[in-house]
Each structure stands twice: as C-alpha cells, then as structure tokens.
C-alpha cells in the first residue's frame, strides 16, 4: 500500500539497486545546496553579507541544519546500501568542504564573510561524520560518528550564531566589517572583545568549548573507518590561524581615534548573546547533557 510514512520507508526501503542510487544522488545534490557543501556553497557568503544580523543567526543556527538532517534522516536511513556504496565520494566531499571553507575563511578581510566560510568548514565536518557512519560496518564506530555529527550541528548553531551576533554588534557601532579599518577594540569595548575571543576560540575547536567534543568524536570515528580522511583535521589549524589573524587585526594594538568613544555591550545585547555563550561553555565542559539525548537516537540508527 502506498504511503508517505517515513518509518515504513526506513523499515522497508521502497527503492533498491540503480533506482536507490539515483534517488540518493538527487538527495545529495539537494542537501549539498542547503548545507552547503563545496562546490554548491557559493550562495552562502553572499547571503550572509546581504542579510541582517538576525537573518544570519537564523540561517547559520537553524536553516543550514535542514541539509545535514536530510542526510541523516533520509539519505542514510532510506537508501542505506546506496549510501554505503557512495560513502567514499560523500566523505571526500566533506573533507574538501571542510578544508576549502577553512582556507577561504583565512583569505577574508570582511568579518562576516569570514564567519560565513567557517560555516562551510564546520558543516564539512558534519558531512564527514555522516559519511563515516555510512561506510563503517562497526555499529560502535557508526554511533560515535553520528553522535559527533549531530552534536556538531548543535554546537555550530550556538557558536556561529554568537559570532554573527557579535559581528553585527561591531557593525552597528563602527559601520564597517573590514578588519583593516578596525583595530584595538579590546581596549575600547573590552566586554565585546572578550566575548568575541570566547566565541572565536569555540569556533576553532578549543577544548572545554562546544565544538571540541563534537569534532573529537568525528575525527575518532574517521580514524577508525577511513584513516586517510583524517587529513580533514588540518582544517582546525587553518581556522585557528584565521581567528588569531582576525583577533589581532580587530581587537589588538592601539585603538584608532574614531573608536575611542565606542560603547561596550548593553544589557539588551548581553541578553541576546549571553545564553549562547553559556551553552557553548556548558556543552564543551559537560557535553553529556545533550549527548545523552542525541545518543538515544543515534544508537538506534546504528543498528
């Protein structure tokens, strides 16, 4: 009997063989645009640059996850055999996305474009985690990979959402996002500066902050399933260089005369960015509170 019940499709995949592979290819193209994955990523930096701050926060924090949700919920579960056959291709796509996003971020002078390209990098790690889950035959490795991928989706929303809020706050004050026009802001707006430092360190995967447990699990599973793909870990070093360069140009040194009277964070701004930073630290220090929720689902998917 024809049905749209996803549970029925998962229990008894309606397609197999060539039909399943064509369906998977169609889904991969669709989800790659939404995630976005290289080479279908070009819309994202342009969208972020044109969007208001709240638009960028929602886009990064929520909407990009629809693509990776689709990989896990539809592609991985409804065409499992086809995904296993194509898993290496998807894995390479994830590695390329992560490394390209990191290198592209390093080349930016606009803070918002920089953060946008770090999204390509971080979502590349999610693709790697899902691909490893598809390739491996070991249920425990599959669970670790999916735990890491889903936790990375969650932590990316926190960290990148906070970064876009902070970049928006800088733009509201300075009317520019060009790092070369800023400088020395840590002395004029110390609270804004230190919150940006915290969010930047979280984005580069510093232990004790939200991305670390997610990326650690993804890399651990990748090492077990496809050791060559661990080259993706280079993305962390490149992102570290990206944010250290951004912090040096934007916040360190002597402040320009025109930024001397710049106001620091207001109570309203703290109310917006504070909860994201608290969750960022909480998830990094004690990820079990959210991993427990994630693991109940991913362990079922790993059967």
The amount of helix comes to over 70%
Order of helices and strands: HHHHHHHHHHHHHH
Number of domains: 1
The overall pLDDT average reads 90
Uncertain segments of ≥5 residues (pLDDT<50)?
none
State the secondary-structure class.
mainly alpha
**Tally of strands:** 0
**CA radius of gyration:** 20 Å
Q: What's the number of helices? A: 14
Q: Write down the overall geometry.
A: elongated
| Biggest pleated-sheet summary | none
Strand content: under 5%
Q: Separation of termini?
A: 26 Å
Quick summary:
Residues 18-235 form the NADH:quinone oxidoreductase/Mrp antiporter transmembrane domain. With 303 residues, the protein is mainly alpha-helical. It is 75% helix and 0% strand.
Structure description:
Helix 2 (18-34) packs parallel to helix 6, helix 6 (80-106) runs antiparallel to helix 7 and helix 7 runs antiparallel to helix 8. This protein has one domain (17-301). It is mainly α and 303 residues long. The chain is built from 14 helices and no strands. The protein has helices at residues 6-11, 18-34, 43-50, 53-63, 65-78, 80-106, 111-135, 139-174, 185-188, 190-203, 211-225, 234-251, 267-285, 288-301.
């Amino acid at each position: 009997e024809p049905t749209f019940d996803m549970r029925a499709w998962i229990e008894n995949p309606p397609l197999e063989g060539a039909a399943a592979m064509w369906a998977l290819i169609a889904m991969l193209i669709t989800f790659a645009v939404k995630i976005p994955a290289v080479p279908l990523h070009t819309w994202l930096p342009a969208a972020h640059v044109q969007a208001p701050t709240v638009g960028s926060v929602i886009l990064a924090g929520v909407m990009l996850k629809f693509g990776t949700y689709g990989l896990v919920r539809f592609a991985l579960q409804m065409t499992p055999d086809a995904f296993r056959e194509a898993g290496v291709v998807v894995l390479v796509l994830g590695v390329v996305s992560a490394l390209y996003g990191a290198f592209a971020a390093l080349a930016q002078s606009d803070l918002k474009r920089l953060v946008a390209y770090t999204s390509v990098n971080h979502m590349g790690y999610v693709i790697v985690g899902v691909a490893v889950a598809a390739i491996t035959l070991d249920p425990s490795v599959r669970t670790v990979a999916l735990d890491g991928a889903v936790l990375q989706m969650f932590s990316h929303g926190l960290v990148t959402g906070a970064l876009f809020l902070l970049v928006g706050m800088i733009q509201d004050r300075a009317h520019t996002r060009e790092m070369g026009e800023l400088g020395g802001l840590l002395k004029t707006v110390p609270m804004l500066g230190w919150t940006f430092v915290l969010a930047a360190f979280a984005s580069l995967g510093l232990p004790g902050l939200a991305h670390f447990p997610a990326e650690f699990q993804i890399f651990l599973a990748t090492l077990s399933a496809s050791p060559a793909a661990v080259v993706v870990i280079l993305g962390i070093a490149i992102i570290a260089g990206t944010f250290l360069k951004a912090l040096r140009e934007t916040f360190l040194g002597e402040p320009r005369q025109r930024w001397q009277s710049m106001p620091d964070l207001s109570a309203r701004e703290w109310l917006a960015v504070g909860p994201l930073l608290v969750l960022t630290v909480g998830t990094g220090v004690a990820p079990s509170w959210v991993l427990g929720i994630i693991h109940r689902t991913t362990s079922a998917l790993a059967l």
